[in-house]
Amino acid sequence: MHRYIGSRMAHSAISMVGLIVLVFFLARLTGNPADIYLPIETPADVRAAFSEAHGFNDPVIVQFWHFVQSLAHLDFGQSLRQERPVLQLVLAAFPTTLLLAFFAMAFALVIAIVSGALAAQRPNGILDRFVNVISLAGASLPNFWLALVSVLVFAVWLRWLPTSGTGGFLYWILPVMVLAVRPCGLIAQVVRGSMINALSSSYVKTARAKGVRRTTIVFVHALRNAMLPVITVAGDQASGMINGAVVIEVIFGIPGIGKLMIDSIQYRDFAMVQGGVIITAVAIFALNIVIDISYALLDPRIRYS
């Protein structure tokens, strides 16, 4: 197990190096920040002084070397737009994104597991067909379209929920529901397929012959053995949910890492973009390793070498 974790961390480190190089040079393709932070009629010497003060006059390779040196000391630099340390801003915004992703994933898992398990009991039955149609539709709908339609229907027409912003419980309903739709549809399909195989196995037939209650057979015996592929898909969706939260946070005005990143890209805040991407990537890499370890905890037959 320790060797496996070390191998995964090494692979993640290689990916991280590639990501650092990519995000640094791609950020600088957006142009000179002086064009945004200074008026058009600003004299050339003032623009040169601005670039010199922030290190933009140095060759790109020199800028990259300075960035790597600072990164080695966990110094992500200073936000050009907010004039505060990048690490402080990212760590302040990240809990909001994690909270949004956690609630959306928890809601999606509960609905997907229950509906998929119930649908698998009678394949091609009425409930199975209904779950199939709804889950396929949910997995196919784009988040941004669903978010806009939800705001139009529930906030503008019916006036049940607020359109955007943060506050009490009502402000979280639309973002969580919209973000949960796609993973819920995908996971429900996987649960259904995996449960159909599990329910047709010999140990389930033996349990039925012994008179074990149907709910116990479905949600205890069969569901546990059907969870490995579900965890794989759920882990992939959980990692992607952090990225998918970018669109949701912008539409609903949630001050998370996604909105912070979009604003930083628009204002060419290079340090903020770099720090946000790197810290998000570290969180995703750590989540993937935790998911891999959970395989062995869920199924003792799995061993890593």
Protein model, in words:
It is a single chain. This protein has 305 residues and is mostly helical. It has two domains: 12-72, no CATH class; 93-298, Orthogonal Bundle (MetI-like fold). It is 76% helix and 0% strand. It has helices at 2-27, 34-37, 44-53, 60-72, 86-120, 126-140, 143-157, 170-199, 202-209, 214-225, 227-252, 257-266, 270-298. Helix 8 (170-199) runs antiparallel to helix 11 (227-252) and helix 11 packs across helix 12 (257-266).
Shape: elongated
Fraction of residues in H or I helices: over 70%
Question: What is the CATH class of the largest domain?
Answer: Mainly Alpha
Arithmetic mean of pLDDT: 84
What multimeric state do the chains show? single chain
What ranges have pLDDT less than 50 throughout 5 or more consecutive residues?
A: none
Helix-strand makeup class: mainly alpha
In CATH, the homologous superfamily of the largest domain goes by the name MetI-like
The CATH topology label of the largest domain is: MetI-like fold
What CATH architecture label of the largest domain applies? Orthogonal Bundle
Note the gap between the termini: 6 Å
Radius of gyration: 24 Å
Q: Quick one: how many beta strands?
A: 0
Number of domains: 2
Helix-strand sequence: HHHHHHHHHHHHH
Largest sheet: none
Percentage of residues in DSSP E strands: under 5%
How would the blueprint of this fold be written?
Layout: H1 2-27, H2 34-37, H3 44-53, H4 60-72, H5 86-120, H6 126-140, H7 143-157, H8 170-199, H9 202-209, H10 214-225, H11 227-252, H12 257-266, H13 270-298
Helix pairs in contact: 1-13, 5-6, 5-8, 5-11, 5-13, 6-8, 7-8, 7-11, 8-10, 8-11, 9-10, 11-12, 11-13, 12-13
